[in-house]
Amino acid sequence: MDLLGQDFRAVDVGERLRELRQERNMSMRSLARASGLSTNALSMIERARTSPSVSTLVKIAAALGVPITAFFRLEPPKRDIVFRKADTRSRVTVPRGSLEGLGGEEFVGGVEPLLLTLEPGANSGQSQMLHSGHEFVLCLSGQLEYSVESQRFLLEAGDSLLFAAQLEHRWRNASKGTTRAVIVLSGFERGESPSEYHVTAANVSHETDNPID
Fold first, then answer.
1. Which of 27, 47, 116, 202 is the most buried (most CB within 10 A)?
2. Average pLDDT, the chain
């Protein structure tokens, strides 16, 4: 599986867990207390004796203070100019949809454009997302409903939305057909990859089977 250019199969999740834990000077026991998991379960993951579920990684990520995809992140080299052919886009699947990278994962600046494709019923999950920076959305086809704090916006082809991304938000396909939209994330903090929050929210929703309201 590809997470916006990153090959999950090339990453040892157990080794990444050990690195993240040691970077934060956390013992196995303290991580177990913070995550609510047993030290034996964590040890098994670190030694690659078992593969953790998404919900387990969410607990560990929260205890470590990192997004879930930090376990899979391999930083690509950054460039001043990024040209991306349509058939070479990085792509990650979410339940009933996908997010495709449009070059931001390799760009030196703080901007990350994405192509969102959603089948009917697809959504970003029950939990709200928030991250640093700004979020711009342009609906290309279908209908995309965005909930930002207490407001809801229904975007149809040609409609756009711009908001401060630290406001709680989520999205869903509000039509009976496929919806496509361009999302541009910008102005986020150095070292942050806000697209990870969108990917994580949708996949955790699928894992826990909690639909959007």
1. 202
2. 83
Distance from C-alpha of 198 to C-alpha of 127, rounded to nearest angstrom: 11
Does the reported pTM lie above 0.90?
Answer: no
**Angle (CA) 140 100 167, round 5°:** 75
Domain 86-208 fold is: Jelly Rolls (2.60.120)
Strand partners, 92: 99
Report the length, in residues, of the chain.
Answer: 213
> Comparing C-alpha atoms, which of 96, 150, 101, 100 is closest to residue 124?
96
What does the pLDDT look like over 102-151, one tens digit per residue? 998 888 888 999 999 999 989 987 778 888 899 999 999 999 999 999 99
Pinpoint the alpha helices (H) of 9-123: 13-23, 28-35, 39-46, 54-64
- Domain 8-71 CATH superfamily: lambda repressor-like DNA-binding domains (1.10.260.40)
Tens-digit pLDDT profile for residues 48-86? 888 887 778 888 988 888 777 677 655 567 889 999 999
Angle, helices 39-46/28-35, rounded to nearest 10 degrees: 120
